[in-house]
Amino acid sequence: MDAESRDIPDKISPMRWLAIILICAVLLCGCGAPRSGVSAGAPNSGTTNSDANVAGATSKASSWKTIARGVELCEFQTDATSQDLPVPITALRVAPGRVHIVSGDKLEASQWRQKSGAIATVNGGYFDPEGRSLGLRISDNKRLHDLRPADWGVFLIEGERARIIHTRDYKALRDKGRTHRVLEAVQCGPRLVVDGQLTKLKPQWARRTALGIDRSGRVVVAVADGELSFAAWQKLWATTLNCPNALNLDGGGSTQMSLQSGNTAREISGSWPIPDAVCIR
Question: In what order do the strands lie in the sheet with 264-268?
Answer without folding.
Answer: 99-107, 274-280, 120-123, 257-261, 264-268
